[in-house]
């Protein structure tokens, strides 16, 4: 049996929804796998780790961990990978590898895991459910890990247009989490919680102006992370001047995500920010997809 597993990119937080909100984007990690004598990984594109032994690869480690957790053995596989999700840019590349690995074990060891179980396992590995829930379910998700289960609620947001601005440098999540404070003052926490609630309400009624406004009101992490992304302040101002509703850091960065109108003049930004890879996409609605392509 050969399976094809396709996992979308994801953008976590949307500003104030720190470690809780996520949205799926139409850039994909695609995994083709079939049982083999021994593990083999072939990279068919860029945006994939190089020089790793198969068993050191996050996707394979996750697949083996998942099968073992369910007391099953996973046959070695010949795995071909293609990716459109750049590494360490805040677009959920590790979440995609984790979800892809769990689904590989699910298919090859016949675990019969539900989406709820996949998200819960992935959240355990990632430490927070925002990216993994969006990667599994698609659209915009609100997610919380409750210990014994991970609860996910999905919001329809497929009509939104997102400007994705990807720099060519990496920013490790551990570095971007390392600049955050350990505690917050009560007034900061109360205001940040209120702002996150308003953002979810705006998403649920599809009000792009309000979503954009609240995306920029975070106090949990963006004030500390903005200085890690050299162009962030100027970019936020420039896209606003050109008609964007709002901009936040995508996940831990350094990619920036702006909510924009469909007719946003992206070409005017390209000349201002030649070092950024810019694209406008809509929310990806489908989430994780799997098909058997041969017996
Ligand atoms: N919510 C996470 C963060 C996403 O902002 O650190 C990156 O893993």
Explain what this protein looks like in three dimensions.
The chain has about 300 residues and is α+β, with helices and mostly antiparallel strands. The protein has two domains: about 1-155 and about 285-295, Ribosomal Protein S5, domain 2; about 160-280, Alpha-Beta Plaits, CATH 3.30.70. The protein contains ten helices and eleven strands. The chain has helices at about 60-70, 95-110, 115-125, 130-135, 175-180, 185-205, 210-215, 220-225, 230-240, 265-270; strands at about 1-10, 20-35, 40-45, 75-85, 140-145, 150-155, 160-165, 245-250, 255-260, 275-280, 290-295. The strands form two sheets. Strands 1, 2, 3, 4, 5, 6 and 11 form a seven-stranded mixed beta sheet that branches. A four-stranded antiparallel beta sheet has the order 8-9-7-10, sandwiched between helices. Helix 2 packs across helix 4 (about 130-135) and helix 6 (about 185-205) runs antiparallel to helix 7. L-homoserine binds near residues 12, 128, 177, 251 and 252.
